[in-house]
Amino acid sequence: MSAQQQYSFFESVEKSFDKAAKFTKWDKGVLEQIKVCNSVYRLNFPIKRDNGTIEVIEAYRVQHSQHKSPCKGGIRFSDGVNQDEVMALASLMTYKCAIVNVPFGGAKGGIKINPRNYSVYELEKITRRYTSELVKKNFIGPGIDVPAPDYGTGEREMSWIVDTYTSLKPGEIDAAGCVTGKPITQGGVRGRKEATGLGVFFGIREVCNMEDVMKKLGLTVGVEGKRVIVQGIGNVGYHSAKFFREHGATVIAIAEHDGGVYNENGLNEEELIQHRNKTGSITNFPGAKTIVNTNEALELECDILIPAALENVINAENASRIKAKIIGEAANGPCTPEADEIFIKKGILVVPDMYLNAGGVTVSYFEWLKNLSHVRYGRLEKRFSENMNTHILGQIEELSGKKVSSGEKEFILRGAEEIDLVHSGLEETMITATREIMHIWLSNPEIPDMRTAAYVSAINKVGIIYAELGIFP
Ligand code: NAD
């Protein structure tokens, strides 16, 4: 914890929880049960490095809540991993799943390594060993606890996990559902990779379409023309930037760990990534101004700021210098409680992490369902829909005596593919969640911010299960 921060990450989550709990009807015991982390597994194991030395690896898996099974949450590879962080992230997963009506409890995993310092072979050894340790303790499985990618991990790590798990559990028919975020060839679902960034876009777009909210912020309705700054051009940041740009917003700045870039006419995230692949850094991007102190990028004039890197980056020290009108928390926990207070006073709208970045877990849910059903989305109905659409269009053309253009025809006749269904399920989820939270917030003038409203939504959805079903006498 830095000197600027009064609270650890987990304490911040607890503080936000307590703030919201006042607006719910649950008694102390139920609230306490919702808040605590049910199981914390801390493990150490040795690996042999490529140079022959033995290194002891520190890792965690925290199951915050089993009010629904399985529990679900990503695995983070970062040298900042510690028990407090994993507990906080696991708690956020419980609340996130509840808000978006994904029937999972919350969990999270972390391995305390900087993946940049390890070879691919070493990373594979670490991931496989971590998985087999989880298997030993019954901390992973399609009906127990289902990991996913998070900071520092992706499809590659998920395929190592599913491979290790299936080799240790021969004959387990649903084994592919032991982890999500897998490559398509290993049982993944189309649309998972971009899901969190796309969900961030859908959530913010819904907020930007709310006339009253935009009026209060002094902004025009809609995403088009909004100036956006993104921190972190990893999985979530890259896709957030992509969808904002594709829908008419201008991404004026992007910040990375080693510096940022600024161009008031807009940056193209794909070209920026190619530049980084070539040079090793996003800085010195042709046509853009380099920002040497990367944190300064967050303080530039803009409409929407998307922190998509790590927690606690917007805190008591820098919050008063933030000029954005909307902060879309793509990362988990980027704003501290102290920063929240400053934003409430300044009238800056913080769209909270715990639902805004739920796109990943929502599509993970679709992937898990696909694994359990053993059938690709769209397989059963695509051809049927196309045949039916062809028939209906033929009837319309015959009855009206007019023909639709070939472009329109193609659009109308098409049956849904897996990717269409996943994107539409995600869009529906994010729109519904945004409206539910806004409704809670706007219908109680004492609720100070959208984060508190989101917690109220989560606490009520988990509370009802503990209060009515889940606590044994
Ligand atoms: P990632 O590893 O793909 O990307 C993170 C990026 O942030 C990297 O490019 C890294 O270099 C950059 N970064 C690190 N420190 C920085 C700094 N100080 N300033 C600017 N950039 C910095 O990780 P990700 O999966 O995109 O996750 C990012 C955040 O989103 C995390 O908080 C994670 O918990 C959250 N999240 C991820 C998912 C998901 O599906 N991947 C889902 C929900 C939430």
Description:
- The protein has 473 residues and is α/β, with parallel strands linked by helices.
- It folds into 3 domains: 39-186, Rossmann fold; 195-356, Rossmann fold (3-Layer(aba) Sandwich); 363-468, no CATH class.
- The chain contains 16 helices and 12 strands.
- It has helices at 9-21, 28-35, 83-99, 120-136, 155-168, 195-208, 211-217, 235-246, 269-279, 337-346, 353-356, 359-373, 382-400, 406-413, 418-442, 450-470; strands at residues 39-48, 54-63, 71-77, 105-111, 145-149, 227-231, 250-256, 259-262, 289-291, 304-307, 326-328, 349-351.
- The strands form 2 sheets. Strands 9-8-7-6-10-11-12 form a 7-stranded mixed beta sheet.
- α1 runs parallel beside α3, α6 packs across α12 and α6 crosses α15.
- The mean pLDDT is 95.
- The structure holds nicotinamide-adenine-dinucleotide.
- The site of nicotinamide-adenine-dinucleotide has 24 residues, from α8 and β7.
Summarize the structure.
This protein is of the alpha/beta class. It is 45% helix and 14% strand. The strands form 2 sheets. Strands 9-8-7-6-10-11-12 form a 7-stranded mixed beta sheet. The protein has a 5-stranded mixed beta sheet with strand order 1-2-4-3-5.
